[in-house]
């Protein structure tokens, strides 16, 4: 029984959503289509590639990729076509240019800024207070008078 469970666990890898009618007859083109599909995000499922997603839009994108490859586009041209059509959000690994570069850099910069502010706050808070000035003779006499009453 344990062996059966182990075999089932090993066979339970990620199931690809590519349907038999989508597969290209040329194995080289099909391999290129699979590689491109693994890099494109399903717009319905959010964090799945179109190669793994069963959504209708993912199927349309897989067919679009294969159609462009059959027409003779290079891998970069296919990805550029899809990005032009659906925006850069469709890439599972966004480029490090323009606004994306700002977003990639903003997180670490804000973390360092917050750590610096926190360090200064703690340092100032734990600093020794200034010593109180000594009382004059008049003040000591007045204090003694108040305490005796």
Automatic annotation (TrEMBL):
Annotated protein name in UniProt: Cytochrome c-type biogenesis protein
Keywords: Cytochrome c-type biogenesis, Heme, Iron, Membrane, Metal-binding, Signal, Transmembrane, Transmembrane helix
Organism expressing this protein natively: Psychromarinibacter halotolerans
Taxon lineage: Bacteria, Pseudomonadati, Pseudomonadota, Alphaproteobacteria, Rhodobacterales
Function: Possible subunit of a heme lyase.
InterPro entries documented for this protein: C-type_cytochrome_biogenesis, CcmH/CycL/Ccl2/NrfF_N, CcmH/CycL/NrfF/Ccl2_sf
Keyword Protease: no
The family this protein is said to belong to: Belongs to the CcmH/CycL/Ccl2/NrfF family.
Highest taxon, organism lineage: Bacteria
Domain CcmH/CycL/Ccl2/NrfF N-terminal residues, every copy: 6-147
TM regions (residue ranges): 101-122
Cleaved signal peptide residues: 1-17
């Amino acid at each position: 029984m344990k062996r059966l469970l182990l075999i089932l666990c090993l066979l339970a890898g990620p199931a690809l959503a590519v349907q038999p009618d989508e597969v290209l007859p040329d194995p080289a083109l099909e391999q290129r289509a699979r590689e491109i599909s693994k890099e494109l995000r399903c717009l319905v499922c959010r964090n799945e590639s179109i190669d793994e997603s069963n959504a209708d839009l993912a199927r349309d994108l897989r067919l679009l990729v294969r159609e462009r490859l059959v027409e003779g586009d290079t891998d970069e041209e296919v990805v550029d076509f899809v990005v032009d059509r659906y925006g850069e959000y469709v890439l599972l690994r966004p480029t490090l240019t323009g606004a994306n570069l700002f977003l990639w850099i903003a997180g670490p910069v804000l973390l360092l800024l917050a750590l610096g502010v926190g360090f200064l706050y703690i340092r100032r808070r734990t600093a020794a207070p200034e010593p109180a000035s000594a009382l004059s003779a008049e003040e000591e006499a007045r204090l003694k008078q108040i305490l005796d009453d």
